[in-house]
Amino acid sequence: MSRRPKIKITLIDRKGPVGCHRGHKIGDSYDFDTQRGELCPMAMHVAFPYVDILRYGGNIPGQEPGTAVFCCPDVDTINVFKIEVCEED
Q: Is the sign of the CA dihedral 10, 34, 51, 72 positive or negative?
């Protein structure tokens, strides 16, 4: 039985005029399996379908294989996150 690959979610940019109400900052990174509770629930809601697609071998059109970039739905903040499938050591 193969293991699911690790997934890392990193805040890479912010487009909105207001800082994140959850306190996230550019460069913050989260392990999906062990730290997803630390990620803003609004961002997590958007991230989950991408994580599911990548984790089970799919790719997102227009994105590098094994990655997805998405935005937080908070119009005042608009944090930009990158999801990456991490290779096992």
A: negative
For the stretch 31-41, pLDDT in tens is: 999 999 999 99
Distances (CA, A) of 42 to 2, 17, 58, 68, 89: 31, 18, 23, 17, 31
Unique residue bearing structure tokens 């730290």: 35
pLDDT at residue 89 is higher than 60: no
| Domain layout of the chain by residue ranges | 6-86
Residue 87 pLDDT greater than 90, yes or no: no
Q: Enter the pTM of the model.
A: 0.91
List, edge to edge, every strand of the sheet that includes 6-14. 29-31, 6-14, 79-86, 67-71
State phi, psi for 30 to the nearest 5 degrees.
Answer: -135, 135
